[in-house]
Amino acid sequence: MGEELFWAITGGGGVSFGVILAYKIKLVRVPPVVTVFNIQRTSQQKLSTIAHRWIQVADKLDNDVFVRMTFDVINNRNGKKIIRATFPTLYLGKSAALVTLMNKDFPQLGLKKSDCIEMSWIESVLFYRNFSIGTPTTALLSRTAEKLNPLKIQSDYVKDPISKQGFEFIFEKMKELENQLLDFNPYGGRMSEISEFAKPFPHRSGNIAKIQYEVNWEELGVQAAKRYANFTRMMYDYMTPFVSKNPRATFLNYRDLDIGVNSHGKNAYAEGMIYRHKYFKDTNYNRLTMVKTRVDPNNFFRNEQSILTLSS
């Protein structure tokens, strides 16, 4: 295969280089007991203060803890729209140590030991997939598909902390739109220790979090799809002041065709300019292009956002 091709397919989108049949993965050791919790807070509980603290510490917390922050819109008892935040968390250790850690670095969340559940790591995989506590781990072997609804996903990266007022503005915009879900995934930790050139994926050190914008719907038809997808686009546009710039970075695995597509015609190079910067930055993309030109000079393996050859 060669080192350059291996580098390219471990983060550059395998579809551009061939058909990948299998990967060999090196596992890492985890302790026999891990701790999880899934606390919820609402905009009636000083949520902007909690969110602002999360964005200040999310990438700086102990490497053994991973705390996501997800926002959606719900109705309170009076039928008024409010924001709900969910904090799904995994800690590689026992609950007492986690409570001490969180109350030192993130006291605004108000974590108590009674919020925590200790289990094995493989059981935590079920927990993260919203299976009931006590579900046998053999459920992970099921090939039965979950219910699939249409959805639209876009992504962003946060490099500077969002202020409390900024979060309040974001919450108001979410309530204006329908079915909005914003998922903040923390970076830092091991992500920041790896060079942006080690793999094609460059968005590492300097990023606080990745944002996933998501809208799901059940209505059928083209008009419904256009309507709901446009809600995500409106949220994405609104978030411009709060996220990375030059380029406005994007997560490859969400495949956002809104940032540009390639017809693989005479204007292929210009068409690919925008999405390549957002996904890979220049240095990594140029290296991917060299690999592509060597292993697939005729550009047989391609899609709307695939890597181009030098002759494109």
Radius of gyration, taken over Cα atoms and rounded to an integer in Å: 21 Å
Question: Given the structure, what is the number of helices?
Answer: 8
According to DSSP, the number of beta strands is: 8
The largest sheet is: 8 strands, antiparallel
Order of helices and strands: HEHEEEHEHEHEHEHH
Structural class: alpha+beta
Q: In one word, what is the shape?
A: globular
Mean of the pLDDT scores? 93
Distance between the termini: 24 Å
Low-confidence stretches: none
Strand fraction band? 15-25%
Helicity, in percent? Answer: 25-40%
Polypeptide structure, described:
- With 312 residues, the chain is an alpha+beta fold.
- It has helices spanning 3-9, 47-57, 95-105, 121-128, 164-176, 190-193, 222-238, 268-295; strands spanning 34-42, 65-67, 69-75, 81-91, 117-119, 151-158, 180-186, 209-216.
- Strand 3 (69-75) and strand 4 (81-91) form a beta hairpin.
- It is globular and about 60 Å long.
Topology of helices and strands:
Layout: H1 3-9, E1 34-42, H2 47-57, E2 65-67, E3 69-75, E4 81-91, H3 95-105, E5 117-119, H4 121-128, E6 151-158, H5 164-176, E7 180-186, H6 190-193, E8 209-216, H7 222-238, H8 268-295
Antiparallel strand pairs: 1-4, 1-5, 2-4, 3-4, 3-7, 6-8, 7-8
Helix pairs in contact: 2-5
Short recap of the structure:
The chain is of the alpha+beta class. The protein has helices at residues 3-9, 47-57, 95-105, 121-128, 164-176, 190-193, 222-238, 268-295; strands at residues 34-42, 65-67, 69-75, 81-91, 117-119, 151-158, 180-186, 209-216. β3 and β4 form a beta hairpin.
